[in-house]
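Quick note —
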Amino acid sequence: MDLTILVIDDQFGREPSMQQMLESTLLDFPARLHYCTGQVEADGERRNDLGVAVAAVGDDNRWSLVLLDMHFDSGPIATDGLPQGTLGDDRFGIRLEQELLRCFPALPLVRFTSSHERELDVGGPPRPFLSKLQAKAADLRLTLLDHGRLTPEQRRLLLKIPDDTVVSSPELFKVYTEAMRLARTDDSVLILGESGSGKEHVARYLHAVSAHASQPFVAVNLGSIPPTLVETELFGAVRGAYTGATTRTGKFAQAAGGTLFLDELAAMPLDKQPVLLRVLEERRFTPVGSDRSVEVACNVIAASQDQLDGIAAAERLRSDLLARFHHTIRVPPLRDRPEDIDAILAHELQAAQQSQGKQGMVVDPMVARGLRGQPLLRNARDVLAVIRRAVALRPNNSVIRWEHLALEPTPTLPDEVRAPADASHATASLTDDHPGSWCERLPLRGALTAIDDLVFRMKVQTALRALRHCRHPVSGKIRVLPAMQLLMDDPRLTSMAAKRLLNQALGHASTRPLDSDELVRMIKMSVEPRGD
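Predicted structure written out below.
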């Protein structure tokens, strides 16, 4: 769905030619701009009017962003069509801003005025600001990402995230937003994160959204290069530089015009770090055996799986070399962004099926639940490994359950809950007996966890049953809204709320897009015997 942006401005709101100019300058992505003057005209006079702008906003949930001019020209209209009274009235702009935020406290409001008027004295903290004189499409894009009201799909669109990159959690969206901001500069960037957390994905993204995207992206793992060959690998060598040496192009030269990614920076030998430091400072390097220096013509991004304090404490990286990386991006581990697990599971399941020629598989919702409590799975790479193994061992059109992942039982679950002969068996009979007698049979150790798991399974099965009950009788189409209205006994439930509730019932992130084909497979398998 296109973004909707309201521009409240006395000039842009009135002049179609100015609107066209604004849209050609600010839009390079799908969006619709709507305009309001914030004024009324009567008796040959143009008057500022709070009510006009409040009425234009109407419902604050409608807008992805509201751009508010702070200076309005009003007064008698001259022969040239312009008002000749109060010009540049920022007092009205301030009052209008306050009135809009009073009526719509959650309104995504950004000031839209001249660059030298970033802060107006309104007796409060400075408001977000977009310059009329200097703003380009990239500035509006970042303003939307920082201050707009966006769906995950709209956020992905603005960030230009590739389809093969899984980004679902707010934490990871922040990482990619910061990467897009830094891609507008040529500064060196250091990316920190645990092994497999996605540092190279972020580095490639930085390159892809930069001005150098059409040029080479060259990656080198410094930890895999023998110390004696570090300079040759990075800077190249000329024929005869050492015994048996032939002319060799180094990574810096290979990345000319593009981006050089130095992975595992902290693994670089300390005695070789001054050479890299000098190259980053002087922006020139000298191939081994040569007496001629070459200009560095690439951006440099580095990564390390160590945190800065750990690097400093272990003295593995020179402080002056660290200082040459002007910006730092931290990629959180998967355990700190559990919202990404559902998206990673869906993505890796599809990728594993395609690579192995399989089809029709679905993942039991309990798998994502179990992975959230599995400390051994630290990152997406680990999830990919267990899913690939499970897909290889399972037939087409089957359900992948926790036991198929060949992992240890979730450590947070006690033995009685894991064992089918005890708590798991007891919970299965909850609906057959009076709750009092069932509770007496349930082992006390881990009882609340067992009950929680049972309630979760009941929610999943009940949601699938409702979807099955409300399928279209002819086409078989999945109808989420009537199913959730039935379960909630609320005919006023909206479509968006219904999708959110279904995702929650299935144990997914509430904003995850619904896949009709996946729901059909889950419904089918929910009524089949579990003998697998």
